[in-house]
Amino acid sequence: MRLRTWCLLTATGIALAGPAAAQAPPTIGKASVTKRETQSIESSPPAISQAAPTPVGYESDVYCFGYVGDLNEAFPVVVHGAENLANQTDYITGDLLYVDGGYDKGLRIGDVYWLITPEQEIFNPVTHKSIGRLYQYRGRATVHSVEGHTAIIRVLNACTDIPIGAGLKKFEPIPVPLARKTPPLQAGDPPNGKVIGNIVFTRDGVVAVGQDATVIVDLGVASGIQPGDFLTVFRYTVGTDYGIGPVGTYWVNLPPPPGVVVPRTYLGEVAILVTGDRWAIGRVTDSSQLIEVGDEVEVK
């Protein structure tokens, strides 16, 4: 009896093991990968090259700064009223403004315009010559309705307060440049012989700036400067206090007197965002010391 029971159990075990063995795929010359391992491999992000170009700034660096223009640039259409004129003196996003031009000045519903105000004159800190006037982007507005000689515009985006008298200029998108960053220069690295200029303006008149600040330099398209270029910032310092003198509305750093030679003091780097003929707007991407108007820049 025991022998017969043992034989039945053995036969049953063989019958159960047979289908299980048939369901398992053979692994001949190929490594098996579990479901968990497969999911882990598929979910891993692709490797990104460290040398890939990246944006050197943000939209606010270009859309809420401005440009250098002629001293007396004229705007054919200006803001001369507002819906809430009795309650406001300056205006922000969403406000309705009235302008002194309509169909006669080419305005059409849906068109987008910069809102601009003329600001201070900018001087070269070395030659003391005028570079031009800063025209500040106050924001952007779209044409809401148009009549023959007047129109209503709605503020789409206000970078800062928008006053009565702001001028209109047709909006054109400004792309933020992409560039590959290289290691900054170090103390003792010699000049590379490329074009040299100066920082001539700091945003909002801040005396000394650091990383992420925006500045204007006196190099532009005429000097071969393009968006995405990098400039090394430096100054020459000698004695117990380096020279400082008034230029325009700034007290700026001055070079050592003739005959005095000292090594460069490296301060940081600036990435170029926008270029004009003889000027460019840049963003400070690195700063080991505070950077000021009058400091020199050299194309990397």
How would you sum up this structure, described in words?
This protein is mainly beta and 300 residues long. The chain has 2 domains: 55-170, M1 Pyruvate Kinase, Domain 3 (Beta Barrel); 193-299, Thrombin, subunit H, CATH 2.40.10. It is built from 3 helices and 21 strands. The protein has helices at 2-23, 35-43, 59-63, and strands at residues 54-55, 66-69, 79-82, 90-91, 96-99, 112-123, 130-146, 151-158, 162-163, 167-170, 178-179, 196-202, 208-209, 214-217, 230-235, 244-247, 250-253, 265-275, 280-287, 291-292, 296-299. Strand 16 and strand 17 form a beta hairpin. The longest helix has 22 residues, at 2-23.
| Overall tally of domains | 2
- Overall residue-averaged pLDDT value: 83
Content of β-strand? 35-45%
**Helical percentage:** 10-25%
Write the layout of secondary structure elements.
Elements: H1 2-23, H2 35-43, E1 54-55, H3 59-63, E2 66-69, E3 79-82, E4 90-91, E5 96-99, E6 112-123, E7 130-146, E8 151-158, E9 162-163, E10 167-170, E11 178-179, E12 196-202, E13 208-209, E14 214-217, E15 230-235, E16 244-247, E17 250-253, E18 265-275, E19 280-287, E20 291-292, E21 296-299
Antiparallel strand pairs: 1-11, 2-7, 3-5, 4-9, 5-8, 6-7, 6-10, 7-8, 12-14, 12-21, 13-20, 14-19, 15-18, 15-21, 16-17, 18-19
